[in-house]
């Protein structure tokens, strides 16, 4: 009996001591000197996220001292600095697959090496292994205004590119990230159309219109317009197909479709279509549609107002004044002050 009791308490004590050891190793979470930060930027539909910690200068010498030259640096503090791409991107002419990568740098006085490493879970650069590098490339450091806390930002944001920027002390380290915008969007459209948007005419029409607006994959655009028309033929998707055919040099088919598009369309349908083209910067197409609306609805003040706006956006002020004046003649009272204000502005240009 004594031995069994002794064994029981001995085992219990061991379990208790092991538990204490585990708890002590885990510790508690307290604020860090180098605070955690995350920054994201979209290019097209691709999202880029940099996750890092922000050390301060704190009156210390940074470059060549706290951050030694010619050594791999974690480009931040604490754990790995990471960079995540939701879609394939291009850096320094090389395609980078979607995913998360450890971001390291090797500073020198005149040139920095930037490293994307496939191991993004390591602690800082202490366990960095060169064999896991996805790529290395070099950039020139730039002198900048004083920055106490290490900061990442995105500048020069364009439709298909941006510059990622590390700024600390009096240096900034820029590197450019690019995407193949249209191919990326087209592939994403194809994927989306295999899910819920594929059941409705609007998604197929938006896809077709993207091809038209950007002058790409026009035959594919026609196929998508046809799918939209199969689901629900209307003025919007019929006109989308017509302008695509026109871009392909099939003007006879295009003109026939344009006539078909307006047969059963209401004034509001046509006006909405015109504004879609106007807001997309396709002034000639918008004006053509607004003129058709006048032909079909000559007693409506709104059709003249819309055509006036089309000409105003195109910079043809005399024509804009002509149609706004016609709209003013028959517009309801609650619209007259607005139209008068627009006319006054046009006449002073």
Please render the helix and strand layout as text.
Elements: H1 2-26, E1 35-43, E2 46-54, E3 82-85, E4 89-91, E5 94-96, E6 99-106, E7 112-117, E8 133-139, E9 142-155, E10 161-178, H2 181-192, H3 201-214, H4 218-231, H5 235-247, H6 251-261, H7 267-279, H8 283-296, H9 301-314, H10 317-330, H11 333-347
Antiparallel strand pairs: 1-2, 2-3, 3-6, 4-5, 6-7, 7-8, 9-10
Helix pairs in contact: 3-4, 3-5, 4-5, 5-6, 7-8, 7-9, 8-9, 9-10, 10-11
In short:
The protein is of the alpha+beta class and 349 residues long. It has helices at residues 2-26, 181-192, 201-214, 218-231, 235-247, 251-261, 267-279, 283-296, 301-314, 317-330, 333-347; strands spanning 35-43, 46-54, 82-85, 89-91, 94-96, 99-106, 112-117, 133-139, 142-155, 161-178.
Number of domains as seen in the coordinates = 2
**How would you classify the helix and strand content by structural class?**
alpha+beta
**pLDDT under 50 segments (min length 5)?**
12-24
- Assembly category: single chain
Can you describe what's shown?
This protein is of the alpha+beta class. It folds into 2 domains: 35-179, no CATH class; 182-347, Tetratricopeptide repeat domain (Serine Threonine Protein Phosphatase 5, Tetratricopeptide repeat), CATH 1.25.40.10. Helix content is 46%, strand content 23%. The chain contains 11 helices and 10 strands. The chain has helices spanning 2-26, 181-192, 201-214, 218-231, 235-247, 251-261, 267-279, 283-296, 301-314, 317-330, 333-347; strands spanning 35-43, 46-54, 82-85, 89-91, 94-96, 99-106, 112-117, 133-139, 142-155, 161-178. The strands form 3 sheets. The chain has a 6-stranded antiparallel beta sheet with strand order 1-2-3-6-7-8, with no helix packed on it. It has a two-stranded antiparallel sheet with strand order 4-5. Helix 3 (201-214) runs parallel beside helix 5 (235-247), helix 8 packs antiparallel against helix 9 (301-314) and helix 9 (301-314) runs antiparallel to helix 10 (317-330). The radius of gyration is 31 Å and the shape is elongated. The termini are far apart. The model is unreliable at 12-24 (pLDDT under 50).
